Amino acid sequence: MVLNSKIPEGPIQQKWDNHRFNMKLVNAANKRKYTIIVVGTGLAGASAAASLAELGYNVISLCYHESPRRAHSIAAQGGINAPKNYKNDGDSIWRLFYDTVKGGDYRAREANVYRLAQVSGNIIDQCVAQGVPFGREYGGLLDNRSFGGAQVSRTFYARGQTGQQLLLGAYSALSRQINTGRVTFYGRREMLDLIVIDGQARGIIARNLETGTLEPYVADAVILATGGYGNVFYLATLAKYSNGTAIWKAHKKGAFFGNPCFTQIHPTCIPLSSDYQSKLTLMSESLRNDGRIWVPKKAGDKRNPKDIPENERDYYLERLYPSFGNLVPRDVASRRAKEMCDKGFGVGTTGLAVYLDFADTIKRNGKAWVEEKYGNLFDMYHEITDENAYETPMRIYPAVHYTMGGLWVDYNLMTTIPGLYVIGEANFSDHGANRLGASALMQGLADGYFIIPYTIGDYLASSKFPLIKTDNPAFIESEKNSQDTFKQLLAIKGKQTVDEIHKRLGKIMYDYCGMARNEAGLKKALQHIPQIREEFYKDVIVPGTADNFNPELEKAYRFVDYVEIAELMVTDALHREESCGGHLREEYQTEDGEAKRDDEKFSYAAAWEYKGNGQKWEMHKEQLTFEYVKPSTRSYK
Amino acid sequence: MYAFIQFYNSSVGKKLLVGLTGLLLISYLVIHLFGNLLIFRNDAGRAFDEYAEILPQVVVIRVIEVGLFLIFLFHIITAAYTWLVNKQAAGKQYKVWKKGQTSKLSSRTMLLSGSIVFIFLVIHMQQFWYTSRYEAGEHFSMYEVVRATLSEPVYGIFYLIAMFLLGFHLRHGFQSAFQTFGLRDKKFTPIIELVGAIFWLLIPLAFASMPFYFLLNF
Amino acid sequence: MNFILKIWRQKDRNSKGKFEEYKAIDISPDMSFLEMLDAINRDLAKQDAEVIAFDHDCREGICGSCGLFINGRAHGPQHGVTTCELRMRHFKDGGTIVVEPWRAKAFPVIKDLVVDRRAFERIIQAGGYISVDTGAAPEASSIPISKANAEEAMDAAACIGCGACVAVCKNSSAMLFMSAKISQLALLPQGHPERKIRVHRMVEQMDKDGFGHCSNTYACEMDCPKKISVTHIARMNREFIRAKIF
Question: Are A401 and A230 in contact (CB under 8 A)?
């Protein structure tokens, strides 16, 4: 099979306009005859469901929460990019396009990134009109802040809760459509399988999490907006329910998986403190604007940080990157922190942390200044660690935060299964090998508000849809498979809980497929992962039954997919013999430890095809061409 | 009429009416207090007696009396109705519930404090208003009736308790009415609290000074 | 640290529930309340016993999923935190902790500590939005909004819809939740064209869903993890008066 990314002809500035003109339209009166399923209600899912319903389509929206508003987009703190150039600092669509391609270390599709930059301004307009309370200047106009990886101020924000406010905006649009009846919303439903009939995605099976009932949903097209799979690592900044099941089941039905190994690890998280810890908490990257990162010069120095004199501290980011200092991009900051800890310079009881010190800033600007700017973060840190960061430096450590990889989609956001679309973090996205701050919200909303409503119409208008009912054998068989899996899981009755096994999988992934990877480690992981899977099927214990609210069963069937995703991630990481963005292969770095890309051999997106249980995946290449942004070495020295 | 029923049936509407009638009722307290303070004139109650005699002869006063009575009924019925709706909506079967940490006792006991004040009012009306209207003879002295009643320890103390509960009721009720009218915000809250203190503290204290005065046999 | 927990267990919507006692042993003071429950659940699962069901997701105080009534307070004894942010160091070692689901007629229990808060959805669906179709928006900076109003709108918009206000209210009123949305949209000029119909429809829906009336005890503000102020209720009342009378 040859991958066709369907990038429109013409100069990059006109591709999207041309494409919009060339796409077929569905007659306004006919739209209500089409049913579209949207799985997930985060930024991408909620905005897509609302926009499609506004156009007149019949929309079914599902999520595993009781309410669409609880999707994990809500936890994004920093902001959303748009090149409005309100600051008059020379921003433009072209610059945002350029920064994003470069930030992604030249592993993204140029045409998609350009389109993203193009529509990003409309997102801000839309959100303001919805009543999103963005930060404003005294003159009443919108304010911008600056963010990592860019030299202009283009980030719109709503305090430290930008994701929440944007999601509530999309949620309100969705609620309005639910009220009109054009969207039917089903809460506490988790998608378990994709139904493909005659090569077209025609529905899904979802589990009612409250009653355990399996429910079939029929449609003419299916959109997955189910987020990232970072919880493979067990400890991540993701929400506990975030999982990879929906995209993985679609992958097994024929959707290729793009760049699965591209993972973003966020540098400023609160470090692990105990075994029971269920997740890692992120603190806004903005802290690095005023905090200085350091470790003691002597390995294993257990002194109180205040007793370590200035000349015995190593401000390693400032030492290694004199011009960017503490503000290097996320992947660099994370990797260096891990390196310091691996060498034994880590601090805190676990030795897996570095200091983020505000003492100098407090001395220079006063405590009140710091409090006004970062007060809520300091409070949060205090509540979690019981330490006062105004007096003693914060301890931070990197944590898995975002997956750039996801299901492979073409320019229309359609996967290799006709009628199956993937939007937001769930697709392999526009971020290449590394995502810049404040770009995830932008992409999710761009996909949902301004791209999918057009591209899906083209497919609907140009395809035929035979009548299908829920008694179709495809539905019946899929339901039976799920029931069998539940029966199997419930019958094992071993000794370990799902979490205990999942934690071990997570540790393997952190150690061998985390911030730094190498061939030996990845090969070791490829041995361990099947062992863990085997152990799971032998020794897991899942109490309760499948016909009611059963959180342990949910964890178990999600884990079944995690362990398979883990294997593909490692396979992908092993094949990519270069370093780029969040993917650092230790064998491929410069003498001073910087990532070394191999554009000759790896300037492509790897799209993996599932070949059946126990079979090896087949890799397909989508060659990436850079006509407009010429690849160069990222340097932050 | 339909609009009014709709308004009355809505949760905010009912609360607005309770607040409004409550404020009308307490405005009467001010007038009542100023008349009553004549008791303290050192003239063996002559001024007070004259005041008590004139009152029923003023037509406006009679009209206000009827109005007050109706407002009072409305206040009680609506408040009790609200209480009933809330009782049904609550569904609270907490095993442990530390109400005291999140709200003031006065705010949670409005029905109780209001009911006791209501009982007090019935007795109070019978003792003074009814007596002066329908049992006043030739040499009737209102001052004497007041003195006789309030120097009786049982009644005197009952009056003191009632005034305490009235203050307690208004402690919540006054500012609550302004919250319901939508006037409580950063700017107005201090003013509302200040004026409120006149109603929940000063006025009940002034009323309480009367039984106190007679109890101690001045 | 060690604790004795009395936790409400209820099989499903229709079953009668009761309190069960559990021991939490060797709890680190830095653990969150939900991690402490995770530890109990791990032990239960190992004995093949059904785990205690509770809603949770982001575990950083923003998704609004979690919400337990802990020792008589919504989200426990600390002010301004959600259950998932609450740490065990705030409890007395060796003490007893009573854990209950939100209680309100409008929030029926689904299982154990999980309640059905869909009534909140219906309130928002009734009018908690500005009617603007995708693509119809004017340029973002065409409407200046004073910083003070934008900030206050943000204060209101910070609501996470957890339901603590209803849980702690003696009348189970949803006023704080509803007013936060009405107030946010009333403070912004974009919200003005629909302000009358919005307050009318949302109040009507709240009453229909069986929430109680507000009696201004302000308990909601005290247990709101996002410290939403009752002044938003006042503003909502003003919006109501404006809609009905003027």
Answer: yes
Test C130 with A129 for CB contact under 8 angstroms.
yes
Spatial separation of the C-alpha atoms in residues A416 and A607, rounded to whole Å: 10
Neighbours of B45 (CB within 10 A): 19
* C122 in the same domain as C234: yes
Instruction: Give how far C31 is from chain A: nearest CA, Å.
Output: 7
Same domain flag for C38 and C130: no
The pLDDT of residue A149 is 67
Interface contact flag, B9 C203, Cβ < 8 Å: no
For residue B209, what pLDDT band results from cuts at 50, 70 and 90?
very high
Residues of A in contact with C9 (CB under 8 A): none
Question: Helical H runs in chain B?
Answer: 2-9, 11-36, 46-54, 59-90, 105-108, 110-124, 131-134, 142-151, 153-180, 189-197, 203-215
Mutation choice for C interface testing from A132, A280, A282, A449 by most C CBs within 10 A: A132
* C3 contacts on A by Cβ (under 8 Å): none
Classify domain A473-601 by CATH number. Answer: 1.20.58.100
Q: How confident is the prediction for chain A on average, in pLDDT?
A: 95
What's the total number of domains in chain B?
Answer: 1
ipTM for the predicted complex comes to 0.98
Assigned CATH topology for domain A267-400: Flavocytochrome C3; Chain A, domain 1 (3.90.700)
Residue B42 banded pLDDT, cuts 50, 70, 90: confident
CA distances from B24 to A457, B36, C245 (A): 63, 19, 19
Q: Confidence class of residue A484 from pLDDT cuts 50, 70 and 90?
A: very high
Domain boundary among C111, C141, C176: C111
Residue range of the domain that includes C225:
118-245
Domain that residue B129 falls in: 12-84+107-215
Residue B90 is assigned to a structural domain of this protein: no
Among the candidates C88, C111, C134, a domain finishes at: C111
Contact C231 B90 (CB under 8 A): no
The CA distance from A498 to A544, in Å, is 14
Cβ-nearest to C234 among B97, B172, B183:
B183
Return the amino acid letter for B73: L
- Say if CB A616 and CB A626 are below 8 A apart: no
> What's the CATH code of the domain at B131?
1.20.1300.10
